[in-house]
Specification:
It is a single chain. With 69 residues, the protein is mainly alpha-helical. It is rod-shaped and about 50 Å long. The protein has one domain. The mean pLDDT is 93. The protein has helices spanning 3-32, 39-68. The longest helix has 30 residues, at 3-32. Helix content is 87%, strand content 0%. The chain has 2 helices and no strands.
Length: 69
């Protein structure tokens, strides 16, 4: 697997994961939590973590597949 392909897959699936994490977190923060702060900012942080996880995982898998080859 090429590292460029891994990066593109990481971007695509990272974006999808970030969007899902944002909307799920925002809904939970908005409806069920009693806290001080911005629900949107906390949900954006959750989305950023999800994006980083999926992007780094895709790059790591691409690198691991290159080592096996």
């Amino acid at each position: 697997m090429d590292l460029q392909l891994s990066a593109v897959l990481g971007l695509v699936f990272g974006f999808l994961a970030a969007a899902c994490a944002f909307f799920i977190s925002y809904h939970e923060y908005k409806n069920n939590w009693n806290f001080r702060g911005s629900a949107a900012a906390m949900a954006a942080r959750s989305g950023l973590v999800a994006f980083a996880f999926f992007f780094i995982a895709a790059l790591a898998l691409g690198y691991a597949f290159q080592l096996v080859r």
